[in-house]
Amino acid sequence: MTGSDLATHLPVKLRPDPSRVVIRPFMPADDQPPFIDPKQSRAQRIANRVMALDDAEVADELARFTDSLAKHHRDVPAGLLRRFHDINGLVIAPCAIDTDQSLLIGAYFSEEYSFEAAALFNPSIVPHPDQAGVPEGAVRLMLSLRGVGEGNVSSVTFRTGLWSDGCLSIDPPSIQAISPRIKMIPGGEPDDPGVRLFFDDARDPSEIVIFPVTPAQRHGIEDLRLLRFVDDDDNATYLGTYTAFSGGAIRQEILRTTDFKTIDLTALRGPGTDNKGMALFPRKIDGHYFMLGRQDHENIWVQKSDDLYTWEAGTKIVTPRYPWEIVQIGNCGSPIEIDEGWLVITHGVGAVRNYCLGACLLDKHDPTKLLGRLSEPLIRPDPAEHDGYVPNVLYSCGAIAIERMLLLPYAIADSFTTFATVPLDSLLAAME
């Protein structure tokens, strides 16, 4: 049996929906030379124009858009008022004005953003933090996805679903999406605070959208590799590494939450964080945190850390060997602990930049030891689904093992997401 015979493809497909929008902060571009006004910023001029409107004009303008926003967003006035308070005294001179003027200024510094208008791809999957009421033998699931919207900017969005009796169902997403309250927190690089996002108003994980909020993330939060991390005291935390893209540089950051209501985003540091594709192991090994990475753009490496946030150079463990991975090989999410060791879903890049999915097995006690790998792809690009934003690409950011079955979500052509199942016994038997 070759790798390509192992997977059963499920009929579930998740496609981008341009109607899903979030209200996010908007900041007009600053003046450019020679038009800079040293006495008054562009933002201040905008606020002054609003404050110069009479009561009737303010009321008319508010009415013009608030009804439309209410179709997609919950409690629009509260969001606009929060945005006004975010900029009052910081971006514009502090002012004491009535509620309607405050709402309108908040609106001029906000925008609707269709966060998955172009693509919905590169998924990872974990057990949902709430398993209450789930039938015996079933698992409620949490899926993270990379949504791409206007300007080719990437955000993180979520879906929920259920695995039961060998069948997968994905819940319909909410028609609403929540813009978080944002607070800066210490952490990351020196003088580079982390960000704490509050999603208290979210009634369902599909309402959570993590869009770029810092300069380092300005052009995208990409490829979240979400996992359920269990510490030495058996406490579970949801962690996920991702790539922050500023538009000119990338860096690795980590998401941390216990309930998906409060989410921290913090930069990683050290020479082991200089490239994409870091994926954390779901528990410590011999008292250390372990991470997979691709420090040299070509091979899979294992790194370890004492504090989760600082990563040194690692040990090269898997190198390109077969035709379908000659260009490079990398991980497709965090290692999955099974009885036989650490199962790693991989991607290999071959001719004509075809991305295939593969797998390898690492030693449970020493993950620098490679025990086996597939010589043939687990899944190859399908010519019938060739077209998309990036043709011939299959990619995943994390799978899950449920008993002895692998549930593998993966993206096609950097455009949409689908799923496959693979029996673990057959997968391991096919490794060399």
Structure report:
The protein contains 5 helices and 27 strands. The protein has helices spanning 42-51, 55-70, 76-87, 99-108, 424-429; strands at residues 8-14, 21-25, 110-114, 119-127, 139-148, 154-164, 167-170, 181-185, 194-198, 209-210, 220-230, 236-245, 250-257, 262-267, 279-280, 289-293, 300-305, 315-318, 328-331, 336-338, 341-349, 355-362, 370-373, 394-395, 400-402, 405-412, 416-423. The strands form 6 sheets. Strands 8-9-14-13-12-11 form a 6-stranded antiparallel sheet, with no helix packed on it. Helix 2 crosses helix 4 (99-108) and helix 3 (76-87) packs across helix 4. The radius of gyration is 23 Å and the shape is elongated. The mean pLDDT is 94.
Question: Quick gist of this model?
Answer:
The protein is built from 5 helices and 27 strands.
| Count of beta strands | 27
Low-confidence stretches: none
Q: Approximately how much beta-strand content do the residues carry?
A: 35-45%
Number of alpha- plus pi-helical segments: 5
What is the CA-atom radius of gyration, in angstroms?
23 Å
Strand order of the largest sheet: 8-9-14-13-12-11
Share of residues in helices: 10-25%
Distance between the termini: 12 Å
Task: Compute the average pLDDT.
Answer: 94
Shape: elongated
Largest sheet: 6 strands, antiparallel
Secondary structure class reads mainly beta
